[in-house]
Amino acid sequence: MEEVRIIDLKESILADNDADAEKLREELAKEKTVYINVMSSPGSGKTSSILRLVEELRLSFKVGVLEADIDGDVDTRTMLDAGIPAIQLHTGGMCHLDADMSRQALKEIGSEDLDIVILENVGNLVCPAEFDTGAQINLVILSVPEGDDKPLKYPLMFSKADVIDVNKTDAMEVFDFSPERFRLNLATCCPDAPVFMTSAATGAGITELAEWIGARAREILA
Question: What is the set of domains in the chain, with CATH numbers?
Fold first, then answer.
């Protein structure tokens, strides 16, 4: 009997995407553009946090935003109303962006004329972590209401983070969230990423996070 041949399509797809992501990073380096991939759950405050960050970053950088969703354009309208260059990306049912999608989006927004492009990835803590977008910085946002145990439940997502933003700290007293417990849980999968405690609602901690991103961007652009 002939032996059954098995092809792991997911492994092949991920390997191809990883190679394309490295190529995209090389392209971005040549055009002097920093690409930031923001990942989190729905409702964590991604859009509000990005608005706050852009307010700070555009004092020193030309910044644009890519809004990725399965459908709708609510977040893009929010950015445009704030005077921020932005375009909407519809993923056609896919729960993440990959490197080729990123390349298409960066071309459409005119990344060569921007210092920083921020991607608000599709909201979930699973799929976006598996696909390298070609970004030089991965920012993961966790909101206080989600709980301090998420690094234990979604270790791949947190292991991909270059920097972590714990948002909605203004609600800390209402929820059973311990910053100390969160850091202990985070150490199991991502011991080195800096953590910023912020509130997009009040602006607390946003300046410090923006300063970290700005410093990292300058290193990349140098």
Answer: 32-221 (3.40.50.300)
Predicted TM-score (pTM) of the model is: 0.93
pLDDT tens for residues 53-62? 999 999 999 9
Q: What are phi and psi of 167, to 5 degrees?
A: -95, 165
| CA 199/CA 218 separation, integer angstroms | 25
Tokens representing residue 53 in the block: 């960050």
Is 61 exposed, middle or buried (CB count within 10 Å of its CB: 0-12, 13-18, 19+)?
A: middle
Q: Are 153 and 129 in contact (CB under 8 A)?
A: no
How many Å apart are CA 77 and CA 68, to the nearest integer?
A: 13
Q: Does residue 27 register a pLDDT over 80?
A: yes
Structure tokens at 135: 């970004």
CB atoms within 10 A of CB 2: 4
